[in-house]
Design brief:
mainly alpha; 10 helices; HEAT repeat domain-containing protein; ARM-type_fold; ARM-like
Amino acid sequence: MDKAMQTNFNNLESEDKNLQYEAFMNILDATKEEVEWAYEVWDELLAGLTSSNNHKRSRYAQFLSNLAISDPEKRMLTDFPAVWEVTKDKRTVTARHSLQAIWRIALAGEEQKDLVINQLVDRFETCESEKNCKLVRFDIIQDLRNLYDEMTEEKIKEIALGLIEKEEDPKYQKKYAKVWKNAPKK
């Protein structure tokens, strides 16, 4: 890892919130592409998923989701449950930020894609008892749209539209459907 990236990770612990945010954004931006240093931080990020600091939990889940494309050892297949757990965090904003990033894991390969899609579908179908079920469902539909935009696989669109049909409240069904309005055809 180069000095600039190491500085970004160090700045996540800064007292200066602006410096923290800048470092966070720099790391997110860098990890949208493959990086060679993923395993230099992987274990620390994984351990941070259970930190008492909700900002750390959220950030680390997002970083690991992005780093899945830089994971030739496929560690994510075993570490996924720890990342997924943060999507159910007691702090709504932490849970949502993690859930909104989880789709990126699917970009790492077929196994990862199947794992993520299966978890998203299961969560959509079983989240009714959760405090923010409608937000969770919205984020899942958005995740599937993001994945579709990246991969343009018609199966992803079919899965999302099938989930939208399962929503019984017409107001939310319409809201979820808007996410898929203007979806490009393959």
